[in-house]
């Protein structure tokens, strides 16, 4: 069972959830501890693959989801920004259409152990060298 059902719930020990808790394709948002306080990430499942990104649109820095845990377009083919409808490729976060074409979502490293999905301690580094960690 996923340790938290709410989008803004805090994770512990880096465990995010099990692969089978995500629809295929499907998404789920999480809150993790960032260097300046909580930060939001989301997972995207495509088959047996998992992608993770910071929930921040490169256009304005605002969140992408249009409903809690909903990051995909209605056809579940791309990640969709709810604010100005930018569309991002699931596999690499590149913006394919909208006001930030060619820009990219910030990828977050996640680790699969069996069918469990974990956020490693140093999931990604911000441009200034700070890092995101799982909340204790
Ligand atoms: S904030 Fe995402 S497209 Fe404008």
Low-confidence stretches: 1-13, 124-136
Count the helices. How many? 0
Q: How are strands sequenced across the largest beta sheet? A: 1-9-8
Helix content: under 10%
What CATH architecture label applies?
3-layer Sandwich
Strand content: 25-35%
What about the largest sheet?
Answer: 3 strands, antiparallel
Overall domain count: 1
Structural class: mainly beta
Rg from Cα:
14 Å
Termini Cα gap = 19 Å
Arithmetic mean pLDDT:
81
Q: Quick one: CATH superfamily?
A: Rieske [2Fe-2S] iron-sulphur domain
CATH-defined fold name = Rieske Iron-sulfur Protein
Shape: globular
Highest-level CATH class = Mainly Beta
Run of helices and strands:
EEEEEEEEE
Bound molecules: FE2/S2 (inorganic) cluster
Query: How many DSSP E strands?
Result: 9
Structure, explained:
With about 140 residues, the protein is mostly beta strands. The chain contains no helices and nine strands. The strands form three sheets. Strands 1-9-8 form a three-stranded antiparallel sheet, with no helix packed on it. Strands 2-3-4 form a three-stranded antiparallel sheet, with no helix packed on it. The radius of gyration is 14 Å and the shape is globular. It starts with 14 loop residues before the first strand and ends in an 18-residue tail after the last strand.
């Amino acid at each position: 069972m996923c340790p938290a059902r709410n989008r803004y719930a805090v994770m512990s020990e880096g465990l995010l959830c099990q692969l089978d808790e995500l629809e295929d394709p499907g998404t789920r948002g999480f809150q993790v501890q960032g260097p300046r306080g909580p930060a939001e990430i989301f997972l995207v499942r495509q088959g047996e693959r998992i992608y993770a990104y910071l929930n921040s649109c490169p256009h304005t820095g605002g969140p992408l989801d249009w409903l809690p845990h909903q990051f995909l377009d209605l056809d579940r083919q791309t990640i969709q920004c709810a604010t100005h409808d930018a569309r991002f490729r699931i596999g690499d976060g590149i913006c394919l259409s909208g006001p930030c074409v060619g820009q990219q979502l910030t990828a977050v490293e996640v680790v699969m152990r069996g069918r469990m999905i974990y956020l490693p301690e140093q999931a990604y580094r911000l441009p200034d060298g700070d890092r995101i960690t799982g909340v204790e």
